[in-house]
Specification:
heterodimer, A: 335 residues, alpha/beta, Rossmann fold, 2 domains, five-stranded mixed beta sheet, 14 helices, 7 strands, 10% strand, B: 110 residues, alpha+beta, Alpha-Beta Plaits, two-stranded antiparallel sheet, 11% strand
Chain lengths: 335, 110
């Protein structure tokens, strides 16, 4: 925030069209999965680059990453930004959850008295907010016409310059390698929270049954006894997202399974007892397949009907393979 | 850039062309180019690309489109199976047909 702008309805916070160091640092932390649940801005009306009463009004969510992303791409364009209360959730997810909604939008227009501040009656909404909005209902309830802008904020300057018309390409949600790669750190952060404790438990269990006694075995162990666990995490939460279009199969569970089988084949080269190799041959692909299935939620093209269908088949298989693998692993402790 | 495709023949999207008034809002809001205009009416041209987000349904002024809307997220399905409704993650939006989805708690998705 760089000050405030006087309007007929009082002072409106004025923000910059460029990000500062703190905004970039905050975005980095969120991308690493740190504090991403409480990264929000106050809902309400903001002014960017001294807009006049005829400047466009852009509507967004009160997730700070969404707000900053919009600011950054507007650069030197003058506009109003109407921030809805979406409980700190991004535009698309908030629309899916009914938080970025017609009711919230109409209520926010009234709360800030938008009709008194601007002279026109058009609102620019991100296209991906459409699942939560009924444009015709907004018009009926508030008098404002909803115009759906491009999917990506980076296309906004071109969209505004082109008489608020989107090209067909601006209307499509992609899932490029870069878009997938940026999701990997969060996937990994989530996995670390259980994979580290589980690794310690496995190493301790192994030491308990070690021939040399608990402490010498625990300290003397190398990384190999839990390599299968980490191979599964990397296959499911790193390799599958990155290699998504090139992994065979349509179902995410199948893609993850194949990545996991490759990982399991590599594990055969590690120095472990034969029974442990068999155990990880089941455990690693099962884990990779499950984590890949979880990635459906971060992807941009899966349907609920499709996810349910693949889960009906994949979940029992993953659980079955996991139980067989766990049984073999335990048997290995007593052989 | 190639278009990602998910499972075949699972999508619940339906368009009643007799009701369609040809306004084209469904084409505008769809981020997957599922629909196209033909003879002044919308038509489904790539059903398998649909991710059931429900944008076309909620914006259709004449209720010509029906889809069992939801988020294609395995964790949300698992949360629902386990009866979690909590603050921390998504749950499945029930397939209630038309209108806006019910408000839910905080989400971690995205």
């Amino acid at each position: 925030m760089v000050g405030s702008l006087a309007t007929p309805q009082g002072e409106v916070p004025l923000v910059k069209g460029h990000l500062g160091g703190r905004d970039r640092w905050g975005a980095l932390l969120v991308r690493l999965g740190i504090g991403r649940m409480s990264y929000s801005v106050e809902p309400g009306l903001y002014a960017i680059n001294h807009p006049g009463p005829d400047a466009p009004v852009l509507v967004t969510a009160n997730y700070k990453l969404s707000f900053d992303h919009l600011r950054r791409h507007l650069q030197d364009l003058a506009a109003w930004i109407l921030v809805l209360d979406t409980h700190g959730i991004n535009v698309w997810c908030a629309a899916g959850k009914g938080l970025f909604s017609t009711a919230e939008l109409v209520g926010r227009i009234k709360a800030v008295d938008l009709a008194q501040i601007i002279t026109h009656r058009r609102l620019l909404l991100p296209q991906l907010s459409a699942p939560g909005i009924a444009a015709h209902a907004v018009r009926k309830q508030s008098g404002f016409k909803v115009v759906y802008g491009p999917v990506y904020a980076r296309d906004l300057p071109a969209f505004l310059a082109n008489n608020q018309q989107a090209t067909p390409a601006m209307r499509l949600k992609t899932f490029t390698l870069a878009e997938r790669a940026v999701l990997v750190p969060v996937e990994l952060t989530i996995a670390l929270k259980w994979a580290i404790p589980l690794s310690l438990v496995l190493l301790a269990l192994r030491a308990l049954t070690g021939a040399a006694g608990f402490w010498p075995t625990l300290v003397g162990q190398e990384f190999w006894p839990v390599a299968g666990l980490w191979a599964g995490v990397i296959a499911g939460s790193v390799a599958t997202p990155l290699l998504l279009p090139w992994l065979p199969g349509r179902a995410f569970a199948v893609k993850g399974l194949l990545a996991g089988l490759v990982a399991a084949a590599l594990l055969a080269l590690t120095p472990l007892p034969r029974l442990d190799h068999w155990a990880w041959f089941f455990l690693t692909p099962a884990l990779a397949s499950f984590l890949a299935l979880e990635f459906t939620g971060a992807s941009t093209f899966t349907s609920l009907s499709g996810v349910k269908k693949e889960m009906r088949i994949a979940l029992p298989c993953q659980i079955g393979a996991g139980l067989i693998g766990a049984g073999l692993w335990l048997a290995g402790r007593f052989m | 850039m190639e278009k990602f495709v998910y499972l075949r023949n699972v999508v619940t999207l339906n368009l009643d062309q007799r009701q369609c008034i040809g306004c084209g809002i469904c084409l505008t809001v769809c981020p997957r180019a599922v629909l196209a205009m033909a003879e002044e009416r919308a038509r489904i041209v790539d059903r398998d690309a649909c991710m059931e987000c429900g944008a076309c349904m909620s914006n259709c002024p004449v209720d010509a489109i029906a889809v069992e809307r939801g988020v294609g997220c395995a964790q949300a399905v698992i949360n629902t199976m386990l009866g979690r409704t909590g603050e921390q993650c998504c749950t499945m939006t029930p397939a209630e047909g038309r209108g806006e989805p019910p408000a839910r708690g905080r989400g971690t998705c995205g």
